[in-house]
């Protein structure tokens, strides 16, 4: 068995393919074989971008009509597989929607899932994924055994998206079958958090604050600096747990993984769980009053100083430009 048929769970809300989808398509396309994007909903205008990143075929479920997304999409995937188009490998993003669909699909197909992966390789009919453990200190390589489809989920930013593939992008309908008793549960409301500026996990500049800010009101300095630099504000878990900022700001093992061009950590100690979420940033600037703080171990530029002095000076200097 070769790995000829690779599916990617695709998210294309509002006709725009998510960055995570394009990352996975790019990696899938590098593995050889034919790549299919399986869209939860309608591909719409995103179809061109999916094809440009390697999707030769695009399945779309169409409107989910209030059905639970994980239940509906996994059932649609299973119906296509039962219909004869059975993938050798299915790649999911490690996010809420990806987890929801893959766990249900795993049960329906009676196949295991390897989660939290950051890389994948194919050698003939052998598929291996790499998973960081102990906060990234060790990498475990796991190889699937038995029958496919093999199912794996990948952390955001594991791969660089690259367009220009120019695959066919044939759009094929994959309607949601009757969901039985599960169809009795429907989505009654969706809350979309209002944000301005770039998304935390897509911003070129991220300015994060930690407990060293001293009090919640001081987070305003972080937001102002992020705004001036056209970036996104982020946070350590300490201040999320303290209720200073929402969980959506959290960077780290149990938050978001970011890889901006510039990451500024202000008043953050650099715990392992924080650093796994930001150490892939291209340039790291740390501001901390303790010169022994672990964050300086990964910083390209370290400023030993009080955030209450350094940040206002930085804002003043930027305002004067
Ligand atoms: P602290 O560790 O308290 O550090 C504050 C820093 O500010 C210190 O280095 C201090 O020197 C400095 N400081 C103090 N005053 C000033 C000042 N005036 N000027 C400059 N510097 C100053 N953490 C995350 O961030 N993300 C995660 O996803 C995450 N997941 C976790 C998952 C698990 C299972 C566990 C157990 C923990 C997790 N944590 C996570 C928590 C993590 O271990 C740390 O507790 C947390 O990152 C610490 O946040 P902090 O650096 O803001 O606070």
Automatic annotation (TrEMBL):
Q: Report the residue ranges that make up the Electron transfer flavoprotein alpha/beta-subunit N-terminal domain in this protein.
A: 6-187
What InterPro entries does this protein map onto? Answer: DHS-like_NAD/FAD-binding_dom, ETF_a/b_N, ETF_a/FixB, ETF_asu_C, Rossmann-like_a/b/a_fold
For the biological process aspect of GO, one term held by this record is:
fatty acid beta-oxidation using acyl-CoA dehydrogenase
Keyword Glycoprotein among UniProt keywords: no
Please tell me whether the keyword Flavoprotein is annotated for this protein. Answer: yes
The free-text note explaining how the cofactor binds reads: Binds 1 FAD per dimer.
Any one Pfam family match given in the protein's UniProt record, by short name = ETF
Q: Which GO molecular function annotation, any one, does this entry have?
A: electron transfer activity
- Which cofactors is this protein said to need? FAD
Signal peptide coordinates: none
Ordered alphabetically, the record's keywords are: FAD, Flavoprotein
Report the protein's function: The electron transfer flavoprotein serves as a specific electron acceptor for other dehydrogenases. It transfers the electrons to the main respiratory chain via ETF-ubiquinone oxidoreductase (ETF dehydrogenase).
Family the UniProt entry places it in: Belongs to the ETF alpha-subunit/FixB family.
- State how it assembles: Heterodimer of an alpha and a beta subunit.
For this entry, the protein name equals Electron transfer flavoprotein alpha subunit
- Show the taxonomic lineage: Bacteria, Bacillati, Actinomycetota, Acidimicrobiia, Acidimicrobiales
């Amino acid at each position: 068995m070769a790995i000829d048929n690779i599916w990617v769970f695709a998210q294309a809300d509002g006709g725009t393919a998510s960055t995570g989808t394009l990352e996975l398509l790019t990696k899938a396309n590098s593995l050889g074989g034919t790549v299919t994007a399986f869209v939860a909903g309608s591909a719409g205008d995103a179809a061109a971008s999916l094809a440009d990143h390697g999707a030769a075929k695009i399945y779309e479920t169409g409107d989910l009509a209030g059905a639970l997304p994980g239940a509906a999409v996994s059932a649609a995937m299973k119906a296509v597989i039962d219909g004869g188009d059975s993938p050798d490998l299915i790649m999911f993003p490690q996010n809420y929607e990806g987890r929801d669909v893959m766990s249900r699909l795993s049960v329906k197909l009676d196949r295991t899932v390897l989660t939290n992966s950051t890389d994948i390789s194919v050698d003939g009919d052998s598929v291996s994924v790499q998973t960081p453990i102990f906060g990234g200190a060790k990498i475990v390589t796991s190889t699937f055994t038995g029958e496919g489809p093999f199912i794996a989920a990948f952390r955001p930013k594991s791969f660089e998206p690259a367009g220009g593939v120019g695959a066919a992008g044939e759009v094929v309908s994959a309607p949601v079958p009757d969901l039985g008793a599960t169809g009795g549960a429907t989505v009654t409301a969706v809350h979309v958090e209002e944000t301005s500026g770039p998304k935390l996990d897509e911003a070129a500049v991220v300015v994060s604050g930690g407990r060293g800010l001293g009090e919640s009101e001081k987070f305003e300095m972080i937001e102002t600096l992020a705004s001036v630099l056209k970036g996104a504000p982020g946070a350590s878990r300490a201040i999320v747990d303290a209720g200073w900022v929402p969980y959506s700001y959290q960077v780290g093992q149990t938050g978001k993984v970011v890889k901006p061009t510039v990451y500024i950590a202000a008043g953050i100690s650099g715990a392992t769980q924080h650093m796994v979420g930001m150490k892939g940033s291209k340039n790291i600037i740390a501001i901390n009053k303790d010169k022994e703080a672990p964050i300086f171990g990964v910083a390209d530029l370290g400023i030993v100083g009080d955030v209450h002095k350094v940040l206002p000076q930085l804002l003043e200097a930027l305002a004067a430009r």
